[in-house]
């Protein structure tokens, strides 16, 4: 079984697409003889990180993205591999690219969050939460496309399935993580707010990715305020399990926090996060700080002050997070419905 991922990471794009594809690839290892990641050579591309996970990588040119050119370059790289699946996690790819690759693979799988373009795919996964989820892709995919929609299809790393249920209430541990690259530098804003708040008897854990261009400055701020600093760690689930509250962005990590029952203040740092983040806030699973351009150090101070002494808010977010993510329906790491569908033709 040969599987290729077409996915990119960069300082601008962020790391979330690649990280969730690595999660899926890890769970496919026992099924596949070859798994290869096809990525553009962009600043912050993460190909070294992918290779450390023992997956093959194919580097594409870093010139501006054009679907036809990208498809031609990919075909040149994979035409002799005899692919069973191409898995695409890329906002700039639609049915035009997929049509060109159709002859070079048995099946096409798309991972998406936007529902804003047509796809020629056999399976589509969107793990986000929206009102009227089932209607989002109705006119955008072939009639026989299998749709996996909603947080119950969340792609979770193995570590998250070992997290224990823990009731939250008292505020003693804060986790700060705004994604692998944090392009709007929310981490620094939040830390400057924490420096002024001077929280007593609260442990602060700050996580950044290697792709974060401000990581050295953030490390310096952490040292000044006595916060613990972590870079590109493999044990995020453990820090989430220990935390009572998190400051973070929307996207995949927001659903991970809900899965472990971690209440969070969420800032929207990309337009593709807005609809699902606002829906999660309306559902009661998170508290929203706002759009990153309007969120300041003062915003974080105000929101934290409103929340940290409200035990009922912590408990409510935890329960609503569990309800939203449908935690009881999430099976073991190797039993994701997508994998069942890929190899058993059933979900």
Q: What descriptors fit this protein?
A:
347 residues, alpha/beta, Rossmann fold, 2 domains, six-stranded parallel sheet, Glyco_trans_28_C, hexosyltransferase activity, membrane
Structure notes:
- The protein is 35% helix and 20% strand.
- It has a seven-stranded parallel β-sheet, with helices on both faces.
- The longest helix has 15 residues, at 311-325.
- It is an alpha/beta fold.
- It is built from twelve helices and 13 strands.
- One of its GO terms (molecular function) is hexosyltransferase activity.
Distance between the termini: 20 Å
Q: Helix tally?
A: 12
CA gyration radius, whole angstroms:
20 Å
Number of domains: 2
Mean pLDDT: 93
Protein name: Glycosyl transferase family 28 C-terminal domain-containing protein
GO molecular function: hexosyltransferase activity
Keywords: Membrane
Pfam family, one: Glyco_tran_28_C
């Amino acid at each position: 079984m040969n599987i290729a991922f077409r996915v990119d990471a960069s300082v601008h794009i962020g790391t979330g697409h690649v990280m969730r594809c690595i999660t899926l690839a890890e769970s496919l290892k026992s099924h596949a003889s070859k798994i290869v990641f096809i990525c553009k050579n962009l600043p912050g591309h993460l190909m070294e990180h992918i290779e450390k996970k023992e997956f093959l990588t194919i580097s594409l040119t870093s010139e501006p993205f054009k679907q036809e050119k990208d498809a031609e370059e990919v075909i040149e790289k994979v035409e002799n591999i005899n692919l069973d699946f191409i898995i695409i996690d890329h906002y700039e790819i639609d049915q035009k690219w997929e049509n060109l690759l159709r002859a070079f693979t048995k099946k096409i799988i798309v991972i998406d969050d936007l529902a804003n373009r047509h796809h020629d795919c056999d399976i589509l996964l969107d793990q986000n939460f929206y009102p009227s989820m089932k209607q989002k892709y109705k006119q955008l995919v072939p009639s026989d496309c299998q749709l996996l929609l909603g947080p119950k299809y969340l792609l979770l790393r193995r570590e998250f399935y070992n997290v224990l249920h823990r009731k939250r209430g008292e505020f003693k541990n804060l986790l700060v993580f705004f994604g692998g690259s944090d392009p709007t530098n929310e981490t620094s804003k939040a830390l400057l707010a924490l420096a002024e708040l001077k929280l007593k008897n609260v442990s602060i854990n700050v996580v950044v990715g290697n792709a974060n261009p401000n990581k050295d400055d953030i490390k310096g701020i952490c040292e000044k305020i006595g916060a613990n600093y972590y870079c590109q760690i493999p044990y995020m689930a453990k820090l989430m399990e220990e935390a009572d509250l998190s400051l973070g962005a929307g996207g995949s990590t927001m659903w991970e926090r809900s899965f472990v029952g971690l209440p969070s203040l969420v800032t929207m740092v990309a337009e593709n996060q807005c609809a699902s983040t606002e829906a999660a806030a309306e559902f009661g699973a998170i508290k929203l700080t706002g759009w990153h351009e309007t969120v300041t150090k003062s915003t974080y101070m105000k929101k934290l002050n409103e929340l940290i002494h409200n035990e009922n808010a912590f408990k409510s977010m935890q329960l609503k997070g569990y309800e939203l993510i449908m935690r009881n329906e999430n099976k073991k790491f190797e039993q994701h419905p997508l994998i069942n569908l890929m190899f058993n033709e059933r979900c």
